[in-house]
Design a protein that fits this description.
By secondary structure, the chain is of the alpha+beta class. The protein contains 13 helices and twelve strands. Strand 9 and strand 10 form a beta hairpin. The radius of gyration is 21 Å and the shape is globular. The chain starts with 13 loop residues before the first helix and ends with a strand.
Length: about 400
């Protein structure tokens, strides 16, 4: 961890953070440093970056002990920060008013970004870690409400700052992820699993297994053969918590049918042997959502092999299979029977070129993830930009590291 006085000092980090050396990022760090120094009166600052994420395979399986393949991307939230020697955390950002969280004030309930900070602090304290006050100025390129984990990026940024300033950088990935999950569940009223925060904290192209806590390993993939593009349908998913909550609840209803708490505790063969009975006793939609869980888990091993061997066609086939399963079995691509926005984008994207497309993140609104062979990427981006507009088409670079202090 070092202190920075100007944006040019981040040049050695740009490749791992953004997939390329881009002087616009240097200017962005310069802006954040200057605003931080002007706002809080420091001569220099520490810097951190915490990114957005995408998941290739593993849509809505983490909360039932499933497996996921995901990666961190070049959209991120950056922060200039310093310890302030006070018992409070102050955070201000580009275009955002200042947040003030007093660490010893437990009387006033907090919501929004203040609540996320408070939740991360509470969880880390409960695990025996040190917490202190700091000042920070942030800037984010992670779109809010679009399914690329803007809240997880913010929570994990707060976590790594606390880890570096007050705990010698020793807070592990799983604890950082669980701190973010706790904050969202307790202060954001969002019953999220552990997927988003885990990918953001771990970083790179990563396979995660939630059967017993969290275990993860890096996937050895040649990403030069593929281009990721997100297409935003322009509708925020920030007010759709009841729809998200129903998915893990219904999967767990199926698990309860077998006398278990999570689907991972039930052998796949046993589930399919009793599938008709599950439909009758628990319901068609919960049965289909559980079927998605088992099939999605199988696709994780297949896509790890496809990515490691550079098999582009197999990778696209699996992403499309995941997309179809989310559309027809998981049923998280529409808020009601009349809503076809996500499905329309999926089919349109697949028809433009040799590519794959699937709902991304929690679904119901937000974004569609498109995976395109690099040779077709420029044509695909041009065509989708013409249809949806440049502000709705987001080409992404792979980021090789998780949330970190520079």
């Amino acid at each position: 961890m070092q202190k920075f006085t100007c944006g040019r000092q981040v040049l050695p980090y740009l490749q791992q953070l953004y997939g390329r050396k881009n002087m616009q990022e240097v200017e962005r760090y310069d802006l954040v440093l200057n605003e931080f120094k002007q706002k809080y009166g420091y001569d220099s600052a520490y810097l951190c970056s915490s990114s957005g994420r995408v998941e290739f395979i593993g849509n809505h399986t983490d909360h039932n002990g499933g497996r996921v393949v995901g990666c961190t991307v070049s959209l991120d939230i950056i922060a200039a920060f310093c310890p302030n020697g006070k018992n409070e955390i102050n955070v201000v950002g580009t275009g955002r008013s200042e947040i003030n969280v007093k660490l010893d004030d437990n009387a006033n309930p907090l919501t929004g970004s203040e609540g996320l900070i408070k939740g991360v602090v509470e969880y880390l304290l409960s695990q025996g870690y040190n917490v202190g006050g700091f000042d920070a100025y942030t800037d984010s390129t992670v779109p809010s409400g679009a399914g690329v984990s803007s809240s997880a990026a913010f929570e994990t940024a707060i976590g790594v700052i606390i880890s570096e300033l007050f705990n010698e950088g020793r807070i592990p990935v799983e604890t950082l992820a669980r701190a973010g999950q706790y904050a969202e569940c307790e202060y954001f009223d969002k019953p999220c699993g552990l997927l988003d925060q885990s990918v953001v904290a771990a970083g790179g192209f990563v396979a995660l297994d939630f059967a017993d806590g969290l275990s993860y390993n890096t996937v050895d993939a040649d990403f030069s053969k593929l281009q990721l593009v997100l297409i935003d349908n322009g509708v925020s998913h920030s007010n759709l918590s009841p729809l998200y909550a129903a998915i893990p609840a219904e999967m767990k209803d199926v698990a309860a049918f077998f006398g278990k708490e999570r689907l991972i505790e039930i052998d796949e063969k046993t589930f399919f042997e009793h599938y008709d009975e599950v439909q009758k006793k628990v319901g068609l939609r919960p049965a289909l959502r559980a079927k998605h869980f088992y099939e999605e888990n199988r696709r994780v091993d297949e896509i790890k092999l496809a990515l490691s061997s550079g098999d582009v066609d197999k990778t696209l086939e699996l992403v499309n299979a995941s997309g179809d399963s989310s559309l027809y079995q998981l049923q998280n691509c529409a808020v009601d029977d009349k809503d076809t926005a996500i499905e329309d984008i999926i089919h349109a994207a697949r028809g433009l070129t040799h590519s794959a497309a699937r709902v991304h993140g929690g679904g119901f609104a937000g974004t569609v993830l498109c995976v395109i062979p690099t040779a077709n990427a420029a044509d695909f981006i041009a065509k989708t930009t013409e249809i949806y507009g440049s502000d709705k088409v987001l080409p992404l670079k792979l980021r090789t590291v998780g949330a970190k202090v520079l």
